[in-house]
Amino acid sequence: MSANLEQTSFLFGSNAGYVAELYARFLADPAAVDPSWNGFFKDLDDDSRAVLDELRGASWTLRDDETNGAAPDAAGHGLAGPGNGAMVAHTQQVYGGVSPQQLRAATLDSIRALMLIRVFRVRGHMNAHFDPLGLEKREPHPELDPATYGFGPGDLDRPIFLNYSLGLETATLRQILEILHKTYCGTVGVEFMHIQDPEEKAWIQERIEGGRNHTDFTVNGKRAILERLTAAEGFEKFLQLKYTGTKRFGLEGGESMIPALEQILKRGGQLGLKEAVVGMAHRGRLNMLTNFMGKPFAAVFSEFQGNPSSPTDVQGSGDVKYHLGTSSDRDFNGHIVHLSLTANPSHLEWVNPVVLGKVRAKQAQRRDLDREQVMGVLIHGDAAFAGQGIVAETLGLSELRGYRTGGTMHFIINNQIGFTTNPNYSRSGVYCSDMAKMVQAPIFHVNGDDPESVVHVSRIAIEFRQKFKRDVVIDMVCYRRHGHNEGDEPGFTQPLMYKKIRSHATTRELYAKQLVDENVITQAEGDQINADFMKKLEGEFEASTTYKPNKADWLEGKWAGLQQQDENTEHRGATGVSMDLLKEIGFKLCQYPKDFAINPKIARQLEAKKKTIESGEGIDWATAEALAYGSLVVEGTGVRLSGQDSGRGTFSHRHAVMYDQNTEAKYLPLTNLHPEQGHFEVHDSPLSEAAVVGFEYGYSLAEPHDLVLWEAQFGDFANTAQTIIDQFISSGESKWLRMSGLVMLLPHGYEGQGPEHSSARPERFLQNSAEDNWQICNVTTPANLFHIFRRQVRRSFRKPLVLFTPKSLLRHKLCVSDLAELGPNTHFHRVLGETANDLVENDKIRRVVVCTGKVYYDLLQERMNRGVKDVVLIRLEQMYPFPKATLSDEFAKYPNAEVVWCQEEPENQGGWTFVDRRLEGSLKAIGHKAGRPIYAGRPATASPATGLLKRHNQEQAKLLDDALTIA
Questions:
Q1: Are residues 471 and 420 in the same domain?
Q2: Which residues form the Transketolase-like pyrimidine-binding domain (predicted)?
C-alpha cells in the first residue's frame, strides 16, 4: 500500500463519513474547506481518491439534513462525534447497539475493506495463475495482503459493511478474500483500472465480478468446446504423423484459441457482426485455415505434398503454406459471418495495419457507420507484440478519425518465449500486452489450459468491443509443444521448460478428464469424439492425392470484372474528360461559402486558378490534381488520400481542406461538386509511415473501385515503411494473387535540401520491379499527372503506382499544361519526346538526352541559356513497365545522335542502373549506331545527397554541363 494510502487510512479512523463529506465539499468548491484539508485532498493519489469516491457515493455518507445541527464549519469542525447521521444509522442497523469505539472500528473496517477490494481490481492479476506449466514463480504481491491494511488473523470472520461493493451489503473478510481471489487471482486476470472512461470501467467490473465462476456453460456448450479442442489437437497430431518434422508452426499448446475465436464470432454475430477480417502470424495458421476458416483439409494435405495452392494457369511465385490467406462464410445459429484471413509474410505484426485498412474499406462498402458489422481480429505472438514497433503504430490509429474501425479484437498466443529468447530478455514490461494500455484497451490474461475461462473472457471481450467500439486484448498464456518449429530442438536453450512440456498433458486431455469428472461425458464418449475426427482426417488425406484447386478466388466479389494483365501491353484506359465538365469542376473548386472567412492568400490563389480555367492555359500541378480527383468523384468514383499534412499539402499547394480564419471550420471543395458524387476524403495522418501505408494498402485490397493514395511528407520518409513496400505492395500479387491499386506519392527532387529531403530512393523501387508488379513513374506535366491518376481506376486491372512527385515544380512557370490536354481523346504518355520547334534537322541532332522528372526543367533552362540547338531532350515518364518500343521509335528519329542518360541522383542510385541495359535494348532493337547510353549525373556516394548548398550547386552545374556538352 502506498504511503499516501496509509496516511489516508490513518486520518480516516473513526471519521469516515466526516472525511467523505469534506471531500464532497472540496470537489464542489475547494475554498469551502480548511486550507489544511484543501492541501490534503489535492495531494491524494489515485487509490485514495477511488476509496473516497466510493465512500462519497455510499448511502451512509452525510447529507446536510442528517447532521443533527452539527454541519461542518469552514475548518471542517463539528462532525466528528455523535452527529454522524446516516453513517450512524446504517452502521447501527448492521451492528445493533454499539459503543462509539465499536462504531469507529466498524467504519475503519469498511474503509480498509474497500481499499483492499480496489487494490485487487488493480493488482489482482499479479497473483493470478496464468502459466499452464507452473514454471512462472510469482511472489505474492504485498498490496494484496490483508495485513497491509491492518487486518489480522482474528479479523477474518467479523462482518464488514461494503455498501454493495462486490454485490454484497456486508461480508466477512474471509468471504471478501474468497471472492476476490476467485475473481481476480484464478486462471483469469484482468487489467482494466487504467481505463479512464467510467462507464467502460464499470461495465468490465460488473461483468467480471458478476460472472466470476463461469457457470453459464451448458452441457452442450462444454461438449462444443471439447469438440473444437479435439479438432485443433487432432489436426496437429495428424500432420505430425503424416509429415514428421515438416515445418508447420503448429498450434500445440494453444488449442484453446479455436473455441475462443468461435465464441467471438458466435456472440459477435448475435450483436450485429457480419464480417471479420483476420490477420495472424505463423503459429497455428494451418489450424486456423482449416478448423476456423473452413479451408478443406484435403487442400492443406495437397500443399504438404508440394502441389500449388492455386490453379497452375495463374502466374505468380506463390508462397509457403503458413503465409497464405483465404475467405469463407460461417453460419453461427443463423448468423452468417464472412471471414477473410489476410495473407502475410514472415514479418509477423506487419499485417496488422493492412487488416485494419481492409476493415475500414469494408465498413465503407456496407455503410457501417456504427462500425459494428465489420471487425478486425489480430492474432499475435507474445514476443512480436512486445517487440515490433508496428504494433504501437497500429494501436495509435485506433481512435483517429481517418483510420478508426470501431475497435480491434487482439488475441495473443502467449507461448512465453520468442524463438529461443525468454520473456525477461525480450521485453521490459511485466506483460507482453503492456503496449495496449496506451489506448486504454482492457486486457484479459487467461490460462490456456482452462478453455472455459478462455471462452468466457472471449465472450466478454466481444461484448465490450461491440458496445464501446474500442480495442480489447486477450492474452492467452500457453506454450508451444515442439519448439519454434517442428524441426527445432528447443531443449538446447530451454531444457527445464521442455522437460516439463514433455510430461504435461494436452489441453484436450485435461478438459476431457474434467468433463468426465463432472459427468458431462463418459470416457467412452470422449474417446469416440476423437476417433470420429481422426477418421474424417484419414478420408481427407486420401482425397488429397487427387485434389486440384478449381479456381483462383482473387477476382471475385468487389473484384469481379477486373482482369490480369502483363507488362508487354500498354493499357491507357479512358482518361480524357469533356471540356464542359472540366470547366464546371474547375470553377466549383474555386468557390467557397459566402460566410466563410477564407485566408486572403488562398483567396488570391483561387482567383488566379479561376483565370486559368477560363483561359484554358497555365494549368498547374495542384489544379490538374484537383481536376483529376474532382472528375473521378463526379463520375461516382471515390477518392481517399491520406498522409502527413495531406490536407494542405506539405508544400502548401493543395489546400483540399480550407479553414475558416475565425472559427477553424473546415470546407472541402471536392466534397461539394455534385449532389450525387462519389466520396472524397483526405486525412492528415499521424507521424507514422509504416502503419499508415499498410492501412492504405489494406484499404486498396478491399476496395478496387476507389482511387486510394498515400502521400509521404518527403519521399525519403517512405524508408520507414520499407517492410510494407517490399513484403506487401511490390510482391503481393505474385505471392498471394492479390491486386492493389494503391498510389504512393513520394516528393522527390534535388534542390539542396540535404540527404533526407531529396531522394525518394527510386533505385529501391526499380530493383523490385518485375512480373508487371507495379508502375514506377516520375511525370513532368500536370496533364500527365491528371491522366495517370484517372488511369489507375479506368483500366480493367489494378497495379500499385509509385509516383515521384515534385517540390519546386509545383510553382515552376514552365511546368504547366493546357486544359485541352486533359480533354477528350487525350491520355497518359509514358514517354514525352522533344517539344521545341527551333532545333536543327533530326539527322543533324548530335545528342539525345534521356531523363525523368524535375531535372528535365533544369536541362531545358540550361539549353535555352546556352542557345544549344543540336541536343534533344526526351522524358521517360514511366520507368516501369519500361516502354522499350516507344523509346525505340523516339531514338529512330535521330539516327546520328549519341544517347545520354541524365539524372540528379548519384550514379549508384536513381534510375541509371535500371535503365542502362534497357536503353541499350531499345537502341539495339533499331540498330542505332549509338550502341550504349552515356551517363551524366552525380558520382556514386553513400549518402543520397550533400547537405551543403554550395556543393549541391556545383554538382548540379556539372551534371548539366556533362549532359549538354558534346565532346
A1: yes
A2: 619-812
3-state secondary structure of 743: strand
Please report the beta strands in 229-301, taking only residues with DSSP state E, as ranges in sequence order: 275-280
CA distance 480 to 484: 8
Q: What is the pLDDT of residue 94?
A: 47
Residue, of 62 and 710, whose pLDDT is higher: 710
Q: Which domain holds residue 848?
A: 834-964
Q: What is the pTM of this model?
A: 0.89
For residues 641 and 496, state if they share a domain: no
Q: What pLDDT is attached to residue 83? A: 33
Q: Residue 191: inside a domain, yes or no? A: no
Residue 735 vs residues 163, 560, 567, 774: alpha-carbon distances, Å: 61, 20, 17, 14
Tell me what percent of the residues of the chain surpass a pLDDT of 90: 73
> Does pLDDT of 708 surpass 90?
yes
Q: Enter the C-alpha cell of residue 650.
A: 506539405
Q: How far is CA 681 from the centre of its chain?
A: 19
- pLDDT value at 317 more than 80: no
Residue 356 buriedness (CB in 10 A; 0-12 / 13-18 / 19+) = buried
Single residue among 822, 857, 889 that ends a domain in this structure: 822
Task: Tell me the residue type at 93.
Answer: Q
Return the HEC string of 45-59. Answer: CHHHHHHHHHHHHCC
Residue 240's alpha-carbon distances to 248, 295, 502, 545, in angstroms, are 9, 19, 16, 18
Q: Is residue 877 part of a domain?
A: yes
In-domain check, residue 569 = no
CA-CA distance, 804 to 737, in Å (whole number)?
26
Q: What is the mean pLDDT of residues 28-34?
A: 81
Measured distance CA(357)–CA(691) in Å, rounded = 10
**The domain that contains 303 carries what CATH number?**
3.40.50.970
Domain match, 500 and 584 both: no
648 and 790 within one domain: yes
Do 937 and 945 contact (CB within 8 A), yes or no? no
DSSP conformational letter for 840: P
My answer on whether 402 and 509 are in the same domain is yes
The per-residue pLDDT for 548 is 79
Q: Is the per-residue pLDDT at 2 higher than 50?
A: no
Cβ proximity of 370 and 413 under 8 Å: no
